[in-house]
Amino acid sequence: MSAYLSIRNLSVALKGGGPILRRVSLDVHPGQVHGLVGESGAGKSMIGKAVLGTLPRALQVTGGEIWLDGVNLETLPPSERRRRIGATAALIPQDPLTALNPSKRIGPQITRRLVDILGWSRADAQNRALELLAEVHIPEPARVMRNYPHELSGGMRQRILIAAAFAAEPQLIIADEPTTALDVTVQKQILRLIAQMQARHGTALMFVTHDLGVVSKVCDSLSVLYAGLVVENARMRRFFTRPIHPYSAALLAATPTYTDPFGSLKPVPQNVITAVETEVSQHDRRTGA
Amino acid sequence: MTLLRAILLRLLTTAITLFGVAVIVFVVIRVVPGNPIAMMLPPGATEADILRLETQYGFDKTIPQQFMIWLGGVMQGDFGTSISTRQPVSGLVLSRLPATLELSIVALIIAVTLGGTMALLGTRFRDSKTEGAIDVTAGMALSIPDFLWGLVLILLFGVLWPVFHISGRISPSLDIDFTTNFYLFEALLRLRFDVIADLIGHMVMPALALAIPLAAIIAQLLKQSLKETMHLDYVTLARTKGYGEAKVITREALPNALLPTLTLVGVQFTFLIGGTVIIERLFSYEGLGNMAIDAVINRDLPLIQGIVILFALIFTLVNLAVDMLYVVLNPRLRHA
Ligand SMILES: Nc1ncnc2c1ncn2[C@@H]1O[C@H](COP(=O)(O)OP(=O)(O)OP(=O)(O)O)[C@@H](O)[C@H]1O
Ligand SMILES: [Mg+2]
Predict the structure, then answer these.
(1) pLDDT top residue among B56 and B252
(2) What total of structural domains would you count in chain B?
(3) What pLDDT shows up at residue A6?
(4) Which domain holds residue B203?
(5) Which CATH number characterizes residue B116's domain?
(6) Does the first or last residue of chain A, that is N or C, have fewer Cβ atoms within 10 Å of its Cβ?
(7) Neighbouring C-alpha atoms within 13 Å toward the C-beta of A196
(8) Which of B239, B331, B335 sits opposite A103 (nearest CB)?
């Protein structure tokens, strides 16, 4: 089965500075969920941003290919790249409190893309938005469409952002820690909702998280990152039974389980860190970064 | 209920402010040296003449007494009689107000257009040479005060390349029978394009002189605000939806970036109105400011008093308008 999103040797670096992503390769298959795990600063978010074309201005892609549905995005002119992303991919952002425009009503924030980028009629877009809001269990969708973001709770807003992401029926959705900004009580519901929506719409999903526990529940495959280097790409079942890389094994051991709820308090052993650091510097020497 | 309270509170503070301004001006112009009566009489007038007129205008009474008399008149809409022209102050002041309002509003429109364009361009091409050029231009525009801009403009477009009128408000030949003193607005409504062109030809230099420093402030503040907004998550999210940079700036960032800029621009606009005093003098533009300077030269105390109160009232109204606009543009306050 060919991948919907295929990243090959993607390198991202600070402009005039050190590497952030080190020849990252990974595949996200149609209708499947691919997890990105790694500690804070490993570069998980930057992979998503590189695909969506929203890297911070201080960063740039220095090499590699991003194939989306058989087209290498890096070879497209910027406006064409933008439209292609807008029409086929979507983002579920991390913080629902800052991801909605405070001066606009909810309705247009969902329908605008359908009308402007995909050329739908206003009425179609409106109906589609109502349908999606109902699907993410928003009560009284018609009223909520007329609300401003500040009138809604964080959980409601994240549901709305999920509805907005699925509205254009994208082939690929990137969810960057979509629950970390939420109340613990709401986190589970939102996670379940994303998984349900993904399954129902058959969307390919790239799911960024710190939490291997979450990965084990929703993902089909995953990439483990350390300092912008993919130390392991794996199918889910194999990963949890036989992780190949020592760093993966250490992460897995540090994941809380039913029998060991305080697992997350275990640090990754120092010798594992030293080994993976050596790997990173060897990689840099080999690639001349 | 809270809205009603807010309005009442606002009216109360406005009244207190105006009262305070009235007291201060009343006292100050009476303690500085210079006898208004002596100024209006021909040389060789007798002490008796002076005394008679002083009694007529009430200058023989104590300042508190004079103030109570003045306040009593104001309560009935009577702002006293101008000493130099012997006409009611209210009529004089109201006849000049439209000229100054038109000048200020045209200057504001120019400033917002120029400054807004610079801010949008600077944001669109941020961190490039274009932004640098805009920063330098704005910095220069700001470091020269409005009346010096007036002189520069007179030299450029009045002397070197005389395309605009350097003095007055309208050419006498085009002084059609206006029913109001809002010449420009009336000419626009009556579609008298020859008159409009002539009025603009007179107004463009004083308006520009007032507008340039304000445009620079708007450019700097709005650009700063826009650049901060461009980092926010909803702007990034809009990018992933397929919108280009220009759309993202104008549609997503601008409505939110306007808010913090608005209040400061409101304050700066009141400074601009204050600037009309000198600018109107410089361009012999028949407005309130020009009249204020004449009033000071003639020690025309009732007229000075009336003009200052009117300026204070205008400033308060501008601030009120800004606050209301802030509420209208901010959905978080609109529904509170
Ligand atoms: N605007 C920026 N300018 C320069 N460097 C940046 C910028 N944003 C991120 N980085 C760097 O890029 C690296 C990867 O960051 P990234 O946000 O992808 O990490 P992450 O894995 O998503 O971490 P987290 O789990 O905390 O979200 C970090 O080392 C960070 O210092
Ligand atoms: Mg991140």
Answers:
(1) B252
(2) 1
(3) 96
(4) 97-299
(5) 1.10.3720.10
(6) N
(7) 13
(8) B331
Q: Identify which of A63, A234, A99 has the alpha carbon closest to the alpha carbon of residue A176.
A: A99
The whole-angstrom separation of Cα B129 and Cα B121 is 11
For the CA of A56, the closest atom of ligand 1 is 1
pTM above 0.90, yes or no: no
Residue in A50, A83, A43 with CA at minimum distance from that of residue A65: A50
Check CB contact of A82 with chain B, cutoff 8 Å: yes
Q: How far is B242 from chain A (nearest CA, A)?
A: 4
Q: Does B244 touch chain A (CB under 8 A)?
A: yes
> Quick check: is B231 in a domain?
yes
For A169, what's the count of Cα atoms within 13 Å in the CB-facing half-sphere?
A: 7
Residue A46 alpha carbon, nearest atom of ligand 1: 18
Is the ipTM higher than 0.85? The answer is yes
CB B242 within 8 A of CB A117: yes
Q: Give the residue-averaged pLDDT of A233-247.
A: 90
For residue range B52-72, what is the model confidence (pLDDT) as tens digits? Answer: 888 888 888 888 888 999 999
> What is the percent of chain A where pLDDT is above 70?
96
Q: Is B294 inside a domain boundary? A: yes
A174 lines ligand 1 (CB under 6 A): no
Q: Is A14 in the pocket of ligand 1 (CB under 6 A)?
A: yes
- Counted residue by residue, chain A has a size of 289
Q: What is the model's pLDDT at position A93?
A: 93
Instruction: Sketch out chain A's domains with CATH numbers.
Output: 5-287 (3.40.50.300)
User: Best mutation site among A7, A36, A45 for ligand 1, i.e. most ligand atoms within 8 A of its Cβ?
Assistant: A45
Please report the number of interchain residue pairs, chain A to chain B, with beta-carbon separation below 8 angstroms.
Answer: 68
Mutate to test the pocket of ligand 1, among A36, A40, A46 (most ligand atoms within 8 A of CB): A46
**pLDDT tens for residues A252-262?**
887 776 666 66
Residues A24 and A230: beta-carbon distance below 8 Å = yes
Residue of B nearest to A151 (CA): B332
